[in-house]
Amino acid sequence: MKPTILALLIVFCSNLLASELDFSLTGLDGELHRLSDYRGEWVVVNYWATWCAPCRKEIPDLSQLHDSEGDITVLGLAFEDNEIEAFERFLQSYPASYPILLVDVYDPPEAFGAPRALPTTHLVNGQGENVHTWIGPVTGDMIREWIADNG
Q1: In Å, what is the CA distance from 47 to each residue of 4, 7, 74, 78, 149?
Q2: Where are the alpha helices (DSSP H) in the chain?
Q3: N- to C-terminal Cα distance for the chain?
Q4: What mean pLDDT is predicted for residues 25-35?
Q5: What is the Cα–Cα distance from 32 to 52, expressed in whole angstroms?
Q6: Domain ranges of the chain
Q7: How many CB atoms lie under 10 A from the CB of residue 27?
Q8: Closest CA to 119 of 140, 96, 135, 99
Q9: For residue 140, which of 20, 41, 60, 30 has the smallest C-alpha distance?
Q10: pLDDT digits (tens, 9 = 90+) for 56-113
Q11: What is the pTM of this model?
């Protein structure tokens, strides 16, 4: 294969792989949120549910992370078949400062699929690559430490 064709094929395949790590989900705010909208910054994709005690415990810490770090955005993916009003009531007791996105549990985003457990948190770098996954509870300090050591 000629070097030019090989180079184009490599670029095409790498672009294809990068574009696979994207999703579009509607937030509780009614806005459409795309993972690709956050290119250039770290994105914490946190799968959670209202009935999940460790998920509830993470919300204040993830809110603090989202609010204090200019290059880190947290996206909360509500992985639960529930009415919007139920999420809104829940968030009155457990307020999140970051966008809460609604996931169809029967058709989760292909980029990550359905979580094996809740909470599950993915860390996406500025190029849109999933660089780390935590299954179980996570803290802002754990995320900051991972970025400092590996980012």
Answers
A1: 42, 37, 11, 6, 24
A2: 3-20, 53-68, 84-93, 140-150
A3: 35
A4: 97
A5: 25
A6: 22-150
A7: 16
A8: 135
A9: 60
A10: 999 999 999 999 999 999 999 999 999 999 999 999 999 999 999 999 999 999 999 9
A11: 0.86
* Helix/strand/coil percent split, the chain, to 5: 40, 25, 40
Give Cα separations from 88 to 33, 34, 53 (angstroms). 18, 21, 17
**Nearest in space to 60 (alpha carbons), one of 34, 35, 97:** 97
Q: Are 30 and 101 a contacting pair, CB within 8 Å? A: no
Kindly provide the b/e burial profile for residues 105-130, where b requires at least 16 CB atoms within 10 angstroms of the residue's own CB.
eeebbebbeebeebbbbbbbbeebee
CATH superfamily of 22-150: Glutaredoxin (3.40.30.10)
3 state SS of 63: helix
Q: Which of 101, 106, 85, 105 is nearest to 30 (CA)?
A: 101
**3-state class of 131 per DSSP?**
strand
Separation between Cα atoms, residue 46 and residue 100, nearest integer Å: 10
